[in-house]
């Protein structure tokens, strides 16, 4: 069959035990067996470490995709890096984030199997020699790539795919070559330098940090993976390791490589290098093969997130790849120049090489010219990709550009994390929805069914009680379980506008203080997420949230009406607990900045209502459920663009809106930081003078919309009916649907629902 290779520098897998039991249909049997041994399965599950090999959405998407590809019977492999240290553990000390290394392998990892027999060499540095027999890359340093395989089971179809993660190993002669005469001890200690490649995940989400070690990681995963792909392509018969196929004509019919963002973009020049330099394929033929094989998914439009590597770094680390990139760029620019004679500015805009004080390689441009398909991850994002980010490229080859709206796996994000809700649904419509989430539409017939309304509300209340107990046990905080659980969990970033949430919390607080006898809809505002260690503003935002909580939660006038809680160390396993308990999901990024979002989908399928802007997949969620069934507020993309042209003036909103002014003055004066009154001056200064994400511009609409949330929450029956409508309309957001679209429209394969006979049954 055609094999699919999903290349990603991140796989945010979380825990594996329960997921394996669910997909193998063994959960009840295991539960019972463990219970008979006098143990509690849930207690056991809590012992497992999360595999935190990702930052956020991009890494978690890769994990959902693996689950769906296996469930859809695709011959798919996930390829990445086996980081010794994943995303840091977050501690809150004194209200500030403190990072701790995530030593997730400390007690071993029972799910992985080392495969030393498939170890492969990866080369760095060296120089290029042009000889009569072709090009040679010589005098390189070698690092070995050791594969570790983790099984990826499909849902009850007896299919098990593989995630193969590479670990860096120094060769035994490392630094002991002829030129190193003296220090044997020093040389052995230097093995660490090679093995550092797979030491640690870079903790940046939506931000490019041009470090040499990161470029090494990117080439390391690409070089090892492509050797593996080509070895597998050449052994035509399963289990046979002798190279049989030597003609690469059929390569794109047998191999599809999906690049998860630009991080594995080096696949393009590396495949060219192997085809041209090693396999002696003609250049133009090699380029055709490469383009037909590779496809690129764009994940962000934020300029600071785009990978632009200094040419000087390439020259040193990957000299042959630099030559190949120059040649590909020349070919590309010749084509553009022929189509648009005299348009020099267009050549500058479209070049893979950015000229300037420091010449850089634009990896996104490399991906676009080297792929047969380029996709965004939600309709609005794909439109922005076509009309602004890659506008020139879209004009050149419109057929290349597609949309593939993200999805989430209903196995982990409904069955596993919310069995109560899954049971209530299955009772009404059967179990077919687990592998065909569009069947949730059948729930529309039960929107006015009193028992169903009651059952859905009861499951939510149980989930809230359970989460409240967890918060009390873990963090010693008491919350009111009948209050509205208002949740915003995601990486801390200015564009995600946790600050807007803060301003709402302060506004509610001020309203309670100025009118303590008035009846308020009680809320527990929970905000969670990690800040990149070097992102000063994000760390200040965390300190602000914890400081606001300190004041509000200890004010006797407020009592049970309002609590602000920062959820420490937000990660996959915590998401599985908090999402089923949420009443309100906050998805409030500035329109045009959140490519898709996937947390929004998890909340929707788990029975929370969404307050959000028309951004990312929120647009399609509103389309599916009806805009009146979400709390949509604020500027649309067009409004943001208009405001940019006009010039955004924060002060104007500050002067005009007394509640906003009061909140900002309190933050500024040290009301929330009495021991350090100047603590938040950077935050206020940013909001007032250089806020790229226009927090104040949406404040008024947001506060008003939150008022409508309060109104509905006071009518539990109407609230629950809206919840049911949302769940019933969430079927589109299954990663099974997403992967089916990738398979048919990019990879050229058909998903299958065939259940392979189990190994204990004889095959025909």
TrEMBL record:
GO terms for cellular component: cytoplasm. Its EC number is 2.4.1.1. This is Alpha-1,4 glucan phosphorylase. It comes from Oreotrochilus melanogaster. The keyword ATP-binding does not apply. Its cofactor is pyridoxal 5'-phosphate. Signal peptide: none annotated. It catalyses: [(1->4)-alpha-D-glucosyl](n) + phosphate = [(1->4)-alpha-D-glucosyl](n-1) + alpha-D-glucose 1-phosphate. The lineage of its organism: Eukaryota, Metazoa, Chordata, Craniata, Vertebrata. Homodimer. Dimers associate into a tetramer to form the enzymatically active phosphorylase A. The modification N6-(pyridoxal phosphate)lysine is found at residue 602. GO terms for biological process: glycogen catabolic process. It is an enzyme of class 2 (transferase). Keywords: Allosteric enzyme, Carbohydrate metabolism, Glycogen metabolism, Glycosyltransferase, Phosphoprotein, Pyridoxal phosphate, Transferase. Belongs to the glycogen phosphorylase family. One of its GO terms (molecular function) is glycogen phosphorylase activity. Glycogen phosphorylase that regulates glycogen mobilization. Phosphorylase is an important allosteric enzyme in carbohydrate metabolism. Enzymes from different sources differ in their regulatory mechanisms and in their natural substrates. However, all known phosphorylases share catalytic and structural properties. InterPro entries: Glycg_phsphrylas (IPR011833), Glyco_trans_35 (IPR000811). Gene3D superfamilies: Glycogen Phosphorylase B.
